[in-house]
Amino acid sequence: MNHSLTIGDITVKYPIIQGGMGVGISKAGLASATANNGGIGVISAAGLGMFDQASDPYKAMASALKKEINKARTLTNGVIGVNIMTAMQNFSSMVKTAFDANIDMLFVGSGLPLDLPAHQPVNNKTKLIPIVSSFRAAKLIVKKWWSRYKKAPDALVLEGPKAGGHLGFKHEEIDHPDYQLEPLLKTMVNNIGSLETFVGKPIPIIAAGGIYTGQDVRRMLALGASGVQMGSRFVTTDECDASETFKRAYIDSVPEDIGIIESPVGLPGRAIINPFLKQVAMGEKHPVHCPFDCIHTCEKENAPYCISLALENARKGRLKNGFAFAGTNAHRASEIISVKALFESLKREWHDVKNEIV
What we know:
single chain; alpha/beta; TIM Barrel; eight-stranded parallel beta sheet; three-stranded antiparallel beta sheet; 16% strand
């Protein structure tokens, strides 16, 4: 694996971005380990600190994000990013926290961040990277940013429907051939040049969703991506910030365990189907009082459970009261290894062409 990744004036050794995974799955521990091994480590802001101070969860979340960024900075001199969901009620304060900390990169998804540049202070050098599911969304963001702020994205993450967590696709699109990552990437690569000409700068494309091996990485780069974002592969590492029970859920899963759920936030999501989710599907869970009001798209009046609490329980290993989001390839995990060993494995897979599908 001899390809670096350049975004603006930042270059990392390998074209690997560790995806931001909430609630609390990718914090300073995982992000710093990724950065130390030549990739870009990403802290997920989703749910950080929400359970630390019930009287003012928004303030607690901003404080927790600042703490995680500072912790990561003590653990690495590498490149660190933060992932923030546009749908968060306290989006503005979390973005401000990231900018104030001079985070290297800001990844923003779960909605179109059409006003993101308005939040960026003058002379701040944080790279702005929207997460999109189509060229159409990318074009809308680029055009709006340029017309309003004379600002263009520093890169774009194109996430396909095989990703874990919330998906930017309708149910009928998830398995449709036209909406898979490869055709979406082809369309993006074939058309991004017009946007680059429009704004007068390159806009690297990062492929995401279902990318698991070094061969997958090489294939995405051959299709025109500048790099990839990987989530599930990083979960079963020593440095991942989730509990061992959470990691074991990946290792113990089989392909049939991974399915699509309807999230309370109004989007389909991919997760490991467990007894908790089966109870939800059978109607054995009932609407609960919303303790946080954290996501503005959440249908909290009818939600059978609080998704933030369920994901927090899962992180801690309390899977009787929660569940693990996971990508389509999560079942391929067989052991818990270090992030360093993971990068070594990816490099071996990159060069192993014996069983490569052409």
